[in-house]
């Protein structure tokens, strides 16, 4: 059974209406990245950060999985391949599209985290700074999102899977955000074949053995059809 590790980024959810991260102008949905996606921003104005993620949570809940999400689920469910999806996205469209083996390296909008005791629980639709932690009761609730300056989740598990893979595929990523941008090099050093599926060449496109470019809803299902024969 072939082991396939698939990295997905904002490009796979863009066609579901989830706005992509735009770093070129330093803004993210009309907010400065430093204000809404860093621990320092949260400490300075937790109300702003909660409102921002409440809006993103609502937008994600209203979105539907697209053909690319469903194709990856079909690949996993076929049974001839062992598929691990490692996603930089904080939406749950992979799971709702049918994928079961998913790692959210940057956290998820459906999770809440206590920054005092570290307890995690399912996030309600609306969160606020004074919400008490169910475990310690302190008003220390934050979104369970990995912000800039924080370590992504399950990195050892991801690196182990990369080195043991028979194929590494990167879908809808910019190739600018580390450590995910380094996965192609990690796979290459381990002798793992690599494939990029992206709307346009990423910053690290030259490191892939093969690259195919176009909308995710077109090129991902086409690649999956090839894999399924």
UniProtKB/TrEMBL annotation:
Required cofactor(s): Zn(2+)
Name the positions where NAD(+) binds: 9-28, 88-91, 172-174, 198-200, 216
Residues reported in the UniProt entry to bind substrate: 53, 56
Indicate where this protein resides in the cell.
Cytoplasm
Residues recorded as binding Zn(2+), renumbered to this chain, are 114, 117, 133, 136
Which segments constitute the Deacetylase sirtuin-type domain? 1-229
Q: What is its EC number?
A: 2.3.1.286
Q: What class of enzyme is it?
A: transferase
**Which reaction(s) are listed as its catalytic activity?**
N(6)-succinyl-L-lysyl-[protein] + NAD(+) + H2O = 2''-O-succinyl-ADP-D-ribose + nicotinamide + L-lysyl-[protein]; N(6)-acetyl-L-lysyl-[protein] + NAD(+) + H2O = 2''-O-acetyl-ADP-D-ribose + nicotinamide + L-lysyl-[protein]
Task: Name the keywords, alphabetized.
Answer: Cytoplasm, Metal-binding, NAD, Transferase, Zinc
| Cofactor-binding details, from the entry | Binds 1 zinc ion per subunit.
Q: Which residues form the active site?
A: 106
The record's function comment reads: NAD-dependent lysine deacetylase and desuccinylase that specifically removes acetyl and succinyl groups on target proteins. Modulates the activities of several proteins which are inactive in their acylated form.
What information about domains appears in the record's comments? Answer: 2 residues (Tyr-53 and Arg-56) present in a large hydrophobic pocket are probably involved in substrate specificity. They are important for desuccinylation activity, but dispensable for deacetylation activity.
* Family as reported in the entry's similarity comment: Belongs to the sirtuin family. Class III subfamily.
Q: Which HAMAP family match?
A: Sirtuin_ClassIII
Quote the protein name from its UniProt record. Answer: NAD-dependent protein deacylase
Its source organism is: Sedimentimonas flavescens
Its lineage reads: Bacteria, Pseudomonadati, Pseudomonadota, Alphaproteobacteria, Rhodobacterales
């Amino acid at each position: 059974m072939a082991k396939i590790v698939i990295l997905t980024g904002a490009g796979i959810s863009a066609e579901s209406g989830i706005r992509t991260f735009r770093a070129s102008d330093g803004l993210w949905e009309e907010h400065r990245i430093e204000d809404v996606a860093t621990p320092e921003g949260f400490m300075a104005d937790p109300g702003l950060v909660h409102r921002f993620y409440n809006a993103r949570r609502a937008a994600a809940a209203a979105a539907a999985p697209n053909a690319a999400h469903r194709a990856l689920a079909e690949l996993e469910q076929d049974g001839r391949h062992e598929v691990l999806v490692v996603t930089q996205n904080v939406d749950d469209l992979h799971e709702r599209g049918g994928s079961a083996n998913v790692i959210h390296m940057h956290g998820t909008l459906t999770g809440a985290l206590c920054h005092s005791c570290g307890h995690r629980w399912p996030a309600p639709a609306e969160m606020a700074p004074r919400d008490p932690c169910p475990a310690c009761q302190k008003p220390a609730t934050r979104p369970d999102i990995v912000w800039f300056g924080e370590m992504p989740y399950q990195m050892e598990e991801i690196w182990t899977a990369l080195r043991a893979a028979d194929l590494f595929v990167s879908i809808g990523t910019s190739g600018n955000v580390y450590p995910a941008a380094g996965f192609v090099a990690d796979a290459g050093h381990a002798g793992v074949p690599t494939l990029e599926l992206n709307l346009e060449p990423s910053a690290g496109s030259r490191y892939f053995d093969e690259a195919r470019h176009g909308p995710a809803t077109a090129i991902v299902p086409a690649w999956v059809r090839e894999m399924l024969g």
